[in-house]
Write a structure and sequence with these properties.
By secondary structure, the protein is α+β, with helices and mostly antiparallel strands. It is built from 10 helices and 4 strands, in the order ββααααββαααααα. The chain has a 4-stranded antiparallel beta sheet with strand order 1-2-3-4. Helix 1 packs antiparallel against helix 4 and helix 7 runs antiparallel to helix 8. The protein is globular, with a radius of gyration of 21 Å.
Length: 255
């Protein structure tokens, strides 16, 4: 755990995968996905509009429709003062001013957000980014073999390439077309995910988590994996994958 001091608040947050409950990590990742695909600010509305225009120009009408629905949800968040980034931060909060925060329902997490409403959103965003990097670094250190981040690497490479071109454009000029082309690649690389309705990606994400929990529980003699820390959860997943590989090798030898 570590302590953060924001104005009048002392906030204790999880910072290690050997103490962070996997259920909190799941909710953290879900809110980060909502923030990435829906957003909660007027700036995010502009991003949606930019992508909708691009998708229509590329005749990707179904994707444009999904993006439009997500923009509508974005606007609803703005009016309701709901911010997925703040909710993501709340999932990592263990205590505020000495009081335990263990209600992980959406309303419970929103109460945490309301308590710290006097904290600057920029401070919360910076802390969320630091939390994500810290946990991701730990996961890749321990479980790099089972984590597939090729898609992330591609988008990061595009972002890096665009940043370098933008610097060169400032120095020399003449790179506007290339920058525009890479920007379009970045926008098109991430396929819109529907976050509205019963068939939303949010519902799918929750169901996949519960299915994985059921499978792990079966393989671990009924253990309640929802109570595991992130380290325990990924250890179990890695162990089962290794066992399955050995079983597959053994079957192939017998043939």
């Amino acid at each position: 755990m570590k302590e953060l001091k924001f104005k009048k608040h002392v906030i204790e947050v999880y910072e290690s995968i050997d103490e962070l409950p996997v259920i909190r990590f799941h909710k953290f990742n879900k809110f980060m996905l909502i923030d990435a695909h829906v957003g909660a600010t007027t700036t995010d509305v502009d991003k949606h509009l930019e992508k909708i225009v691009l998708l229509i120009n590329k005749k990707k009408y179904d994707d444009a429709n999904i993006e439009l629905q997500n923009m509508r949800q974005n606007i609803a968040f703005c009016f309701a003062n709901i911010n997925p980034t703040c909710l993501a931060f709340a999932t990592f909060v263990n205590k505020i001013d000495g009081k335990i925060c263990d209600d992980l329902t959406d309303s419970g997490l929103q109460k945490i957000v309301d308590i710290i409403s006097d904290v600057a959103i920029s401070d919360i965003k910076n802390e969320v980014a630091a939390q994500k990097k810290n946990i991701d670094d730990q996961l890749h250190f321990y479980f790099g073999k089972i984590l597939n981040d090729n898609a992330d690497k591609k988008i990061y490479d595009l972002i890096r390439k665009r940043a370098l071109l933008q610097v060169e454009n400032i120095r020399k000029g003449g790179f506007d077309k290339e920058i525009k082309s890479i920007t379009e690649q970045i926008l098109l690389h991430v396929k819109p995910k529907k976050f509205v309705g019963e068939d939303s990606f949010e519902a799918y994400y929750d169901k996949q988590f519960e299915k994985m929990n059921f499978i792990l529980s079966q393989r671990l003699n009924g253990a309640d994996v929802r109570t595991f820390t992130v380290l325990q959860y990924y250890n179990a997943l890695e162990l089962i994958q290794e066992q399955d590989k050995e079983t597959k090798k053994s079957l192939q030898k017998k043939r």
